[in-house]
Specification:
Length: 124
């Protein structure tokens, strides 16, 4: 197999994988979500999250009014909720505890996305 074909296969194989969440200058972990008609797409992986402060940066890619609702997984306490116009990006800054969180669109029917296996925060 030529080097070009090998490189092309490597690029195609890695494009679909989500990246590792990064912390911003304030030490808050940032998760980027694209909201489409009936589903969300995460730019970063949401597996293996730890308790702490998070910013969920949500972009409406559905070409219609949608919304974002995030709540505690165990207690259903609402952490944030807002509408998003087509193309709009908004941020929900929330504290994620060991209880976990879940999110969905309250306007455009989407399933709950449950993030219920949250590791304790590492102590420094």
């Amino acid at each position: 197999m030529s080097i070009r074909k090998t490189l092309a296969l490597f690029i195609l194989a890695t494009v679909g994988f989500a990246g590792t969440p990064q912390k911003n200058s304030e030490g808050v972990t940032v998760i980027h979500l694209g909201e489409y008609n009936g589903y969300f797409e995460a730019k970063e992986t949401v597996a293996g999250l730890k308790a702490g402060e998070y910013e969920f940066v949500v972009t409406n890619k559905a070409n219609k009014l949608v919304g974002f609702q995030i709540q505690n997984y165990k207690t259903p306490a609402r952490l944030d909720m807002f509408p998003l116009e087509s193309g709009e990006t908004r941020t929900a800054r929330v504290t994620v505890t060991k209880d976990g969180v879940r999110f969905r669109c309250p306007i455009n029917p989407t399933p709950w996305y449950d993030l219920d296996v949250i590791s304790p925060a590492k102590s420094s």
